[in-house]
Amino acid sequence: QDAIDRKEKRSETFKTAVHGLEMGTPALKTEKLGHRAPQWVRDNLVTMCMRCKEPFNAIMRRRHHCRACGYVVCARCSDYKAELQYDGNRLNRVCQECYVFLTGHVVLEDQEGKHKGILEKGAAEVSDRSLLCSSLQLLDKNGKGGTRGWFVIPQDDPLVLYIYAAPQDVRAHTSIPLLGYRVRDLPQGDSRHLFQLVQSQQVYTFVADTEELKRRWMRAMARSAMGITHPEE
């Protein structure tokens, strides 16, 4: 019966976490770490470790959840154990940052406070303060295949388009400086809403989910391409 009760408790915690994430509920505050069960970030929302930013793969780098903050992290970044009050002070797998906070122990390779590079801003952080963000598909050069990702034009860097693999990733995999590009509309083909960024011989072709979303992106990119940095201009 005790095992059943624990399983039901974990199941309800997971359901609550997923529902909270879908409703946009903020993550646990630092002072609540270990005292309350976290909201788990769903596996399919990230493609890389939310701590060290290394991409996941099926063999060498698997996904794990930190039982303190709910982040999706790799085995190396979650190779720590700490007592969690909400779980009867039992030892649980936690990430390095939560381990340092909960135990007070210093980890030599801790790089907290390291300056974030241009691509090392989290997608959620950038999206919250963006001129426009959504899922788009970027086609390859032959126009037959492409990569679907999360695209963001940040308010604090409005002349650059950041491309993330997933909306909760902690690092963009590439960026495109928009200044000087020309935005070109394309006729709808195969029910796809197509448009392009063009500059000299460089061409990027995008696919939006709807015609309305396509128009919003064309307008946002055109403004950035002309160097307009404020929404009211």
UniProtKB/TrEMBL annotation:
Domain of life per record: Eukaryota
Domain called PH: residue spans: 129-226
Pfam families the UniProt entry points to: FYVE, PH
One GO BP: filopodium assembly
GO molecular function: guanyl-nucleotide exchange factor activity; zinc ion binding
Keywords: Cytoplasm, Cytoskeleton, Guanine-nucleotide releasing factor, Metal-binding, Phosphoprotein, Repeat, Zinc, Zinc-finger
Subcellular location: Cytoplasm, Cytoskeleton
InterPro entries xrefs: FGD1-4_PH2 (IPR035941), FYVE_RhoGEF_PH (IPR051092), PH-like_dom_sf (IPR011993), PH_domain (IPR001849), Znf_FYVE (IPR000306), Znf_FYVE-rel (IPR017455), Znf_FYVE_PHD (IPR011011), Znf_RING/FYVE/PHD (IPR013083)
Keyword set includes Cytoplasm: yes
Entry GO terms, CC: cytoplasm; cytoskeleton
Keyword Transcription listed: no
Primary localization: cytoplasm
Domain FYVE-type: from-to ranges: 43-103
UniProt-listed PANTHER family: FACIOGENITAL DYSPLASIA PROTEIN, FYVE, RHOGEF AND PH DOMAIN-CONTAINING PROTEIN 2
Protein name (database record): FGD2 protein
Organism: Fregata magnificens
Species classification: Eukaryota, Metazoa, Chordata, Craniata, Vertebrata
